[in-house]
Write a structure and sequence with these properties.
The protein has 192 residues and is mainly α. It has one domain. It contains 8 helices and 4 strands. Helix 2 packs parallel to helix 6. The longest helix is centred in the first third of the chain and has 19 residues. It is globular.
């Protein structure tokens, strides 16, 4: 399992254990906020996921596709049970699911102190949020999802640079360089 895979697995487990009713919509939004809050504060994403403008908010398309195709990699399938479920999500044309933990032990050592700090903050903020609440939070004015939806439309990639704010200590070029390096290292197997 790569370092990034370990972070994703343990973040999912953390969110399932520390927030209520984690289904498709809530999971995708929690991961989105975790990545974008981390980028705003520290200049890079954690998961490296590319998020897209689905009607119900930002979606990490690669994760959605493997779940939708029932093709979970071993690092996820050995720890998580993802089952079809309509209880936690609104009805739409996309696959709905809920997550059950096969193993509830979370490896907090998978995270840097900063990643863990943001993980805990996101879980605390959205602990009781429903899928509908999560969707509304991503649809506010001037959010990365809203800006991308208005300028590019549905099913378009959300630029991480839209996650910057006045407190972000890095400029656009520094963040772009960090994101490119993160992608290159991941593709070359250096995140193991």
């Amino acid at each position: 399992m790569t370092t990034t895979e370990k972070k994703i697995l343990n973040a999912i487990k953390y969110f399932v254990k520390h927030t209520n009713k984690v289904g498709r919509t809530k999971l995708f939004k929690l991961l989105f906020f975790w990545d974008f809050y981390h980028l705003a504060k520290y200049g890079k994403s954690i998961t490296g996921y590319k998020y897209f403008t689905y009607p119900f908010g930002p979606v990490p398309k690669s994760l959605f596709d493997i779940i939708n195709n029932n093709d979970l990699p071993t690092y996820l399938s050995s720890h998580l049970d993802i089952s079809d479920d309509n209880e936690y999500d609104d009805i739409d044309e996309f696959k709905r699911f809920k997550i059950n933990l096969k193993n509830k032990e979370i490896d907090l050592g998978a995270f840097t102190p900063y990643e863990r700090q943001v993980l805990e903050k996101v879980a605390e903020i959205f602990k009781y949020a429903t899928a509908k609440d999560m969707t509304e939070a991503t649809h506010f004015h001037n959010t990365p999802w809203k800006i991308t939806m208005e300028t590019k439309g549905k099913f378009k990639e959300i630029d991480y640079l839209l996650g910057r704010n006045e407190e972000t200590p890095f400029d656009d070029e520094e963040i772009k360089e960090r994101l490119i390096l993160q992608t290159e290292l991941s593709h070359n197997g250096y995140n193991r």
